[in-house]
Design brief:
mainly alpha; Four Helix Bundle (Hemerythrin (Met), subunit A); 2 domains; 187 residues
């Protein structure tokens, strides 16, 4: 079954609306602190869907898939880096949420976005990805391993260990950027 960008956006919005209606109904039975958390969850979900959908182009499905994936990685990893650097206040709950989302993203099959023939179009993916697919796949697997570790370390709450693991995940991310990501769009 094929979906256009509008179809996907409509489905996401309908799901968010359904979830919000359920949350609103349930919110009438819970306290103000829980209501605040529900509102925050709704806002976060909405904000995270926008970067993913902004990369969606039904004419370039694999490119859109991988760009949406990487936009969501950046939306979650960037604030963790800023927090570890002291550029943002430390909030353990937010750190855990970002780490959980990164671990969830690492379970997606990102290689679906790098099928043969998807090296052209709106992309910053270098041709070397398709020439060295095994190496690229290993580097992506390494990133996913580091993100899973980041989730565990963050849950433990040790700030020094979290900072160290953020560094390890960043290093795994950079390994791909150095070899396989162009600074500017190629085509």
């Amino acid at each position: 079954m094929s979906f256009t960008g509008v179809d996907v956006y409509t489905r996401v919005c309908a799901r968010l609306d359904h979830n919000f209606n359920l949350a609103t109904k349930e919110a009438n039975m819970i306290g103000p602190k829980a209501k605040l958390w529900l509102a925050a969850a709704a806002v976060t979900t909405t904000m995270l869907s926008v970067p993913a959908l902004s990369h969606f182009d039904d004419k370039e499905m694999p490119q859109s898939y991988r760009q949406s994936y990487f936009a969501l990685l950046a939306a979650n990893f960037g604030p963790m880096v800023a927090t570890v650097k002291g550029e943002a206040p430390w909030d353990q709950v937010k750190m855990e949420n970002w780490a959980n989302d990164l671990a969830a993203l690492s379970t997606l099959d990102i290689m679906r976005g790098f099928v043969d023939g998807s090296d052209k179009g709106t992309t910053r993916a270098k041709p070397e990805i398709w020439q060295n697919k095994d190496d690229f796949t290993k580097k992506m697997e390494s990133l996913h391993t580091e993100l899973a570790s980041l989730q565990k370390v963050t849950a433990a709450g040790d700030r020094d260990a979290i900072a160290k693991q953020v560094g390890a995940a960043g290093k795994a991310c950079k390994a791909c950027h150095d070899d396989y990501k162009a600074e500017n769009y190629l085509y």
